[in-house]
Design a protein that fits this description.
The protein is α/β, with parallel strands linked by helices and about 250 residues long. Helix content is about 30%, strand content about 20%. The chain has 3 domains: about 60 residues, no CATH class; about 80 residues, Muramoyl-pentapeptide Carboxypeptidase, domain 1, CATH 1.10.101.10; about 90 residues, OB fold (Dihydrolipoamide Acetyltransferase, E2P). The protein has a 5-stranded mixed barrel. The longest helix has 22 residues.
């Protein structure tokens, strides 16, 4: 099979070279002979030919899936990154990030989402009219209001218990509206910065915080006093994750 694939690829490359010479005749003195080109020039020419064949849908694509490695995977990753589906540096290894990117493209095309780059899927990826991933419009940051806090104002010292994720995780409805405090580190900004993903201390896991406008950045250490308002879903690289959601009332 490898010999047949290699022969097919060689014939495709030769066909393109011959076609270029027939369609675009030039003065023989201006043509650089292939045997005069160094390795770098030959590899650049090969990459251009491969790219053109992929765009024409005439490239001898091979099926790529988890565990695949090499130049074919690198070319696929580069194209998916151009379209906005792959946000990593191409490394030629078909791992979870590449699977997720292929799934996202399959979703955009209305295909079965299995993360496997078959020859047909790759033809669609490299097609000139392949759809790019739409850029989500960030939610506007709410403007601060002068609405007074309800009375009586909860006191940080006595009205907020130390958060224990086991309580809200096992019985989320029972603890709805309860007040807790916790420390942690901001890992990411969600929904235009109106929600934060916080890694809590004391092995309390990941927490989503619905925060009032404040100057905070990823990596900042924070102490939050807030009201537990239920569960929310966070889309991680490995899939959706259900997290406890707090409405922040005090922040340091």
């Amino acid at each position: 099979m490898r010999r047949i694939y290699g022969l097919s690829r060689l014939m495709a490359v030769l066909s393109v070279l011959i076609l270029c010479l027939l369609v675009c005749p030039v003065n023989a003195e201006s043509v650089t002979e292939i045997d005069q080109m160094d390795a770098a020039a030959l590899m650049a020419l090969r990459e251009r030919i491969d790219l053109r064949l992929r765009a024409l849908g005439e490239y001898p694509f091979v099926k790529l899936s988890e565990g695949s490695k090499g130049d074919e995977v690198t070319a696929l990753q580069k194209r998916l990154r151009e379209l906005g589906y792959f946000n990593q540096e191409p490394d030629g290894r078909y791992r979870q990030t590449t699977i997720n990117a292929v799934k996202a493209f399959e979703k955009a095309m209305g295909l079965k989402r299995d993360g496997v780059a078959t020859a047909d899927v790759q033809k669609l990826v490299f097609a000139p009219n392949a759809p790019a991933l739409p850029t989500p419009t960030p939610s506007p940051t709410p403007k601060p209001t002068n609405t007074p806090r309800p009375s009586p104002v909860p006191q940080k010292d006595k009205d907020y218990a130390v958060y224990d994720y086991r309580l809200t995780g096992l019985m989320p409805d029972k603890y709805y509206g309860s007040r807790y405090r916790f420390r942690g580190t901001v890992l990411a900004m969600l929904d235009g910065g109106t929600r934060w993903l916080v890694q809590a201390e004391r092995d309390s896991g990941l927490i989503a915080v619905q925060a009032f406008p404040a100057q905070r950045s990823v990596g900042d250490s924070v102490q939050v006093w807030g009201v537990y308002i239920g569960l929310t879903e966070y889309q991680s690289e490995s899939g959706p994750v259900t997290l406890p959601l707090f409405k922040c009332e005090y922040l340091e």
